[in-house]
Structure formats: C-alpha cells, structure tokens
Specification:
Layout: E1 5-9, H1 13-24, E2 28-32, H2 36-59, H3 66-71, E3 73-76, E4 87-90, H4 96-109, E5 115-118, H5 125-132, E6 138-143, E7 152-157, H6 163-175, E8 179-184, H7 191-208, H8 213-224, H9 230-237, H10 239-252, H11 263-270, E9 285-286, E10 289-290
Parallel strand pairs: 1-2, 1-4, 2-3, 4-5, 5-6, 7-8
Antiparallel strand pairs: 6-7, 9-10
Helix pairs in contact: 1-2, 4-5, 7-9
The protein binds nicotinamide-adenine-dinucleotide.
C-alpha cells in the first residue's frame, strides 16, 4: 500500500505546514481541527504560503501551480473524516493525555490499514502507540519549523513498529520533499537530543561564571561557524519550551547529567523572561530583532 490519502489533526504552526507539503507531494489531505476559527486560520496560512511560493517561482522565471495543490486539501471539524486515510499525522497541543485520548479514538475509528504518526517533540512514541491499540502501525514523524522550508523529517520507530510501516512512513517523508532520517524512540530523537543538552551546557557555563552569554555565542559562531550561538538560539526556541523539555526528560531519566536543569534557566522563566516572544530572555528583543 502506498500513502495516497493523509489526515492531519491540528492545523496550527506545524499541522498547516505538514498538510501543505503532503499535498505538494500529490497526496489528498484532510485537516481536522476543533473549531472553525482555527481551521480558517490554518487554511489561510496555507493559502498565503502557496501564493508566496507561486510569486517566488515567477520571479525566478519558473512556474508553480498553487491551485491544484490547494484543491487537494480539505478541512473538517469531524474526526470521522479521517476514517479512510492511509496515514493520520497528529500535530495537536503538546499534552500526552490529550494525544493518548485522540489516538484511542482514532484506533477505534480508522480503517484497519491506517498508519498513525505523531509529530511530538518530547513524548515517547511508544506510549501513544499503545493508546492507539495498533502499536505495529505507529511511528513518529517529527517535522521541523517552518515545515515548508526545513528539509528534515525524523522518522521514529518503536520496538513494535513493523518494517513495512516504517518503510511507508519514510517514503511519505520523501513524498513531502524531505530528507528522512531514521531514529529510535529516545528522548529528543536526534536533533533535540543533541541540541537541548548543548544549550543547557552553555547555560551551566554561565551559571559557573566561566564566560558571558555574549562571549559564548560569539565563540560558537566564529569558532564553529554556527549561524547563532546557544543563548540566541534558546531565545528563539523559547526559554519556557526549553525548560519544559528538560523537565520532562529529568522526570524520566533523573540520573542523566546532560539533562540537569541550569539555575539561570529556571530563574529567567520564573521572571517571565521567555526569550524573543516575551521581548526579553538572555537578550532583549523587539520583534525578530535583538536590541
Ligand atoms: N512549534 C514547533 O517548532 C514544533 C516543532 C516540531 C514539533 N512540534 C510539535 O508539533 C505539535 C503541534 O505544535 P504546534 O507548534 O503546531 O502547536 P499549535 O498550538 O500551533 O497548533 C496546535 C493545533 O492543534 C489544535 N488542536 C488541539 N487539540 C486538538 C484536537 N484534539 N483535535 C484537533 N485539533 C486540535 C489547536 O486548535 C491548534 O490549532 C506539538 O506536539 C509540538 O510539540 C512543534
């Protein structure tokens, strides 16, 4: 079976992008939301992104047909619209209880061949797989923001994921125009498992007074050629998001030193200094600009 009809649950920041890239790859897509206003906002984001792509292609003397892509996407407030999908990708709020409840419902509702995937950044895939009642047909498909531009998708398999399902999920990643990487169901998969402890280690250097945030950022930019240093990056990601990922890991792996929470991170989050989105984190921000 190849994946032709895709359901996307949640049409927020990630869900709208996943729906769009799946439709660009030729799949028929149904996006499910909880309220009409969220569906309208998500579909409007897709319209905007597609017209931008068409404009850019024109500027370069090429041609990108937005209309046929958009025509393959429909929106719904009914979960039963997902019943005959070959694949359902979940991109709803990062709350394990809510995700498990959704997958239990989908397990009872969808045709027996439907593959399930979660776009979670921090929860174990195996727990949602268990809740769905079909663990062999369950993978993680971890896309990156903005989905339309970022080339990576991590395809996560649990001990129970079947070879065939994994191969189909990986092929779907390619259909979406991404470079899939395979990984096991471990905390943070590949990217976040390396990135979040790196950001935390930089904060621990600051806690010890080894160097200033600005000097550490300059060192990593000019010494390693990274586009931004760890503090600027944490400000971009959000200090609260970073803290919540570490807290989840510490709960499950209390003895792992790489997951130890830096004091400065807790302090700044308590002071509501959350990074770029709150105007102040390790740096001061005005919109997208550091001041
Ligand atoms: N934001 C990122 O950079 C990023 C990157 C990779 C993965 N993720 C993961 O993707 C998922 C979605 O994140 P996001 O940033 O798109 O969130 P978001 O808040 O922008 O979007 C979530 C959407 O899901 C909808 N929703 C909530 N519960 C629902 C339900 N039961 N049924 C249908 N729709 C529901 C909400 O109305 C909202 O529109 C999370 O698991 C997150 O961890 C996020």
């Amino acid at each position: 079976m190849s994946i032709k009809k895709v359901g996307v649950v949640g049409c927020g920041l990630m869900g709208h992008g996943i729906a769009q890239v799946a439709a660009q790859g030729g799949c028929t897509v149904v996006v499910v939301e909880t309220e009409q206003k969220f569906l309208d906002t998500g579909l409007a984001r897709i319209d905007k992104s597609l017209s931008k792509m068409a404009e850019k292609a024109k500027e370069k003397g090429g041609n990108f047909e937005a209309a046929p892509v958009r025509a393959r996407i429909s929106g719904s407030l009914e979960r039963k619209s997902l019943a005959d999908c070959d694949l359902v990708v979940e991109a709803i709020v990062e709350d394990l209880g809510v995700k498990n409840k959704l997958f239990a419902e989908l397990g009872a509702l969808c045709k027996k061949e439907t593959i399930f995937a979660s776009n979670t950044s921090s929860f174990p895939i195996a727990e949602m797989a268990k809740a769905s009642g079909r663990p062999s047909q369950f993978v993680g498909l971890h896309f990156f923001n903005p989905v339309q531009l970022m080339k990576l998708v991590e395809v996560v398999r649990t001990d129970a994921t079947s070879e065939e399902v994994f191969a189909q999920a990986r092929a779907f990643g390619e259909t979406c125009g991404k470079s899939p990487v395979a990984c096991k169901d471990t905390p943070g998969f590949v990217v976040n498992r390396l990135l979040v402890p790196y950001m935390a280690e930089a904060m621990k250097m600051l806690d010890r007074g080894d160097a200033s945030a600005q000097d550490i950022d300059t060192a990593m930019k000019f010494g390693c050629g990274y586009p931004m240093g760890p503090f600027e990056l944490t400000d971009y990601v959000g200090l609260d998001t970073t803290l919540s990922i570490l807290q989840g890991w510490v709960k499950r792996y209390p003895n792992e030193p790489a997951f130890k929470i830096p004091a400065v991170l807790e302090k700044l989050v308590n002071e509501k200094k959350l990074g770029r989105k709150s105007g102040q984190g390790f740096y001061k921000w005005e919109g997208d600009k550091r001041t």
